[in-house]
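Input record, target 12 of the design panel.
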């Protein structure tokens, strides 16, 4: 309601000031509340980023998973996985599961770790445990977090894009299992597309 409308409602001269005050005080309060709410909405994303940064710096953040389809059409059956430990405690990697609309119960999955951990390579069904439990050391303050890379490959050669990969972890000192899940993001880049 505009001030003109308030003055029209409050046309009786003997009670004009009290009437205008009774209308403008709540309107002012609502405008102030709207401004505060707009500020909170605008700053919510920044506050979330600050919280994540603080948790990482203090070593209290949970590990992070990134999953991407391997580049190139001929390698679409491979998912590249990177686990990053932002926590100050070591993390054990227990098991995996690949789920998607066209991933069957009898699906064969092969996994290959980075060269330093090649002794952990193996195969299993669409869900299973790793032969030995790999682990990531805890993050030390002011240093880069420890990360591990490995691949999951569908043995039938079908694209893995759109499937969901879940890696079940355990933070040392915590009794609760920690499932890390992410959908496989399709990649359209291949080495043939690189600019020389």
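The sequence produced for target 12 reads:
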């Amino acid at each position: 309601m505009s001030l003109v409308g308030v003055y029209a409602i409050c046309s009786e001269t003997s009670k004009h000031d009290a009437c205008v005050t009774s209308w403008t005080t709540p309107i002012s309060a609502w405008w102030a509340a709207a401004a505060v709410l707009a500020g909170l909405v605008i700053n919510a994303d920044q506050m979330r980023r600050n919280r994540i940064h603080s948790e990482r710096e203090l070593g209290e953040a949970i590990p992070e998973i990134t999953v991407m389809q391997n580049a190139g059409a001929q390698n679409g059956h491979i998912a590249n996985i990177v686990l990053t430990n932002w926590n100050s405690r070591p993390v054990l990697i227990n098991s995996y599961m690949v789920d998607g609309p066209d991933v069957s119960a009898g699906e064969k999955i092969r996994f290959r770790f980075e060269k330093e951990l090649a002794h952990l390579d193996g195969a299993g069904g669409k869900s299973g445990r790793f032969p030995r439990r790999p682990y990531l050391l805890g993050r030390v303050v002011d240093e880069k977090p420890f990360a591990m890379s490995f691949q999951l490959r569908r043995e039938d050669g079908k694209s893995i894009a759109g499937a969901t990969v879940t890696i079940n972890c355990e933070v040392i000192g915590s009794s609760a299992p920690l499932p890390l899940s992410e959908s496989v993001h399709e990649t359209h880049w291949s080495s043939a597309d690189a600019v020389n």
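The longest strand covers residues 91-99.
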